[in-house]
Amino acid sequence: MIKFLFIGLLRDRSRSLMPILIVAIGVMLSVFMYCYLLGLMGDMIDFNARFATGHVKIMTHAYAENQDQNPNDLALLETNSLIGNLKTEFPDMDWVQRIKFGGLIDVPDENGETKTQGTGFGMAYDIISENSTEIERMNLEKALVKGTLPKHKNEILLSDDFAQKLNVNLGQSITLISSTMYGEMAIFNFNVVGTIKFGTQVLDKGGIVADISGIQDALNMENAAGEILGFLNSKVYLDEEANRVASVFNEKYRNSDDVFSPIMLRLKEQSFLSSYLDLIDSMQGIIISMFILVMAIVLWNTGLIGGLRRYGEIGVRLAIGEDHHHIYKMMIYESILIGIVGSTLGTIVGLFLAYLMQEIGIDISSIMRNNTLMMQSVFRAKITPPAFYIGFIPGIFAIVLGTMLSGIGIYKRKTAQLFKELEV
Amino acid sequence: MEQSKIITIKNLVKKFPVGKGFFIALNGINTGFEQGEFAGLVGPSGSGKTTLLNIIGSLDSPSEGSAEVLGYSVGSLTHKQAAMLRRQHIGFIFQTFNLLPVYTVFENIEFPLLLMNMTATERTKAVHDAIEWVGLGDKIKSRPAMLSGGECQRVAIARAMVKKPEIVLADEPTANLDAENSHHILQTMEKLNKELKTTFIFATHDEKVINYLHRKIQLFDGKIAKDELIKSI
Ligand SMILES: Nc1ncnc2c1ncn2[C@@H]1O[C@H](COP(=O)(O)OP(=O)(O)OP(=O)(O)O)[C@@H](O)[C@H]1O
Ligand SMILES: [Mg+2]
Description:
The structure holds two protein chains of two kinds. The relative contact order of chain A is 0.18. Chain A folds into two domains: 2-47 and 276-423, no CATH class; 71-225, no CATH class. By secondary structure, chain A is of the alpha+beta class. Chain A has helices spanning 2-11, 13-53, 61-65, 79-89, 134-137, 140-143, 160-166, 201-206, 212-218, 239-253, 273-309, 311-320, 324-359, 365-368, 386-389, 392-407, 418-423, and strands at residues 56-60, 76-77, 94-108, 114-125, 144-147, 155-159, 173-179, 185-196, 207-211, 224-225, 227-231, 262-266, 362-363, 378-379. Chain A has a six-stranded mixed β-barrel with strand order 3-4-9-6-8-7. In chain A, strands 2-10 form a two-stranded antiparallel ribbon. Chain A has a two-stranded antiparallel sheet with strand order 13-14. Chain A is built from 17 helices and 14 strands. By secondary structure, chain B is of the alpha/beta class. Chain B starts with a strand and ends with a strand. Chain B contains seven helices and ten strands. The longest helix of chain B is centred in the last third of the chain and has 18 residues, at 179-196. Helices cover 35% and strands 30% of the residues of chain B. Chain B has a six-stranded mixed beta sheet, with helices on both faces. Chain B has a four-stranded antiparallel beta sheet with strand order 2-1-4-5, with helices on one face. In chain B, helix 4 (120-134) crosses helix 5. Chains A and B meet through helix 1, helix 12, helix 13 and helix 17 of A and helix 1, helix 2 and helix 3 of B. Magnesium ion (MG) binds at residues 49-50, 171, 203 of chain B.
């Protein structure tokens, strides 16, 4: 009987083609959409990891509690030896120090008198050391608008807008007025060697990027840093792995009685990101249910149209002695066959598109023209194991559901009219 | 005498609801059929031929009275039981042949057997026999669209006969055929009736069909006006 149904589907294209196409397109879209959103979320998380949270981040307890104020007076001390330890304890990871700071930028004229002034917000990365991983991580080279990256610790980058506002030229010396780690006034001169585009208004208004050693000098933070960020060598964030690292570290270093003792927080524990990560988990469910609903309704209609076309056939089958229930069952079997073919096709095409998008990506840099620090210029999809089944089972489920709904009409068919109906 | 009847109809009344009242399509039918009859319901249009055939075929049920087919009381069968009765014991031949267009001649004839849990070998043999009976050996792989009307009706006969049912019901089987094809299929059915002892009941007003009948039951306004044996079996 199954063979019989199969032959029918093969020969009667209008019986099979339309539903197969619908299922295939639906499955393709969900697979692709899933991979695309996953890629997008992944990009977002990745960006946050690079820019703010690391995969894990070490701060003092006190700093962690007042993070948004960049309390450098609560910074980590002895960071060089701490990093040394981290490198031996977690050799697969990359550990970097960062300092966030705020301050006044003072631009002097030829006589050393203040020409212009503005408040800036800065970030200090390891830029000048020989094997800096931060330049690539922070997309610094691409975000550069003019000039070069700092090569000495007293060289600095300003946001392009800020530099224009302050009327600063490349090579010019400026003064950063801030406070040291110990609360004293800090005054330090830097050379502006380049301008940079951040891509967010707040930072473009007054952003500063400096080398960490220069800022350590300026703020009297010798061998100290606000934060140490750790990056897994997997490139993508793996919560379990981050969790493992964090528990090992916290077990060893954390001392909740001492507000200056270090604490390691993983990405998921920091700020709003945890809800994004949870969203990724529920996304699967959302996509699947949306897909099933829409597809089932479309296929329900296709089934109704198909049912009209096969009115005569069903009549003959009833007359020959097939009962309603059996016909209904056979239609569902048919739909399963259609579902398998359609879902397979859809999954293959969807994965292929997602693969292209994963490997090549959509490069929007030509549209965006200017690269920025914040903007990812290539959108990429991401294929994960669920992509292989996320469309498949719902594809079959949707067509079965659609067929079940559209097939109910069979039960309304009265045999008493068959002779008359079949005369037509 | 009663025992040899495979169909017994007693005081059969069939009413159809029309508007607020009823239309009486069959009004007190009493008759019966024996194994191997070649009988026809004849009469003017609207006299109730198809309605009676419907009830004998367990497609519809009596409003009053009873119709017993092969020991089953048609009125009291469930949908499933009625389907089973048709599947096992009754073959249908329609005016418009109603073959399944996507399937070949072979597959169309095989279809009723698929519903009967037969093995593939049994089915193939039965289908080949049936094709042999109607003389379509060379068209076995053709699809209905490639066949003439007469050939289609022969396939329909083979489909009705392949399970060797006790009863074959044919409603105006020649209405869409020319004289030559009509005679051909009637001869085929006559031969099968003789060889397999299958009971044939026609509903028709085609003179050509009537000439082949062994028994002619005249219906008029839902009643049997005349019931005559023409040729003895
Ligand atoms: N479902 C129904 N509802 C109402 N009236 C019906 C129904 N079925 C049949 N009838 C009526 O019953 C009468 C007998 O119908 P039937 O189809 O048995 O006639 P028939 O002898 O087969 O006629 P024909 O030679 O035209 O096929 C007709 O008058 C018809 O209108
Ligand atoms: Mg009729």
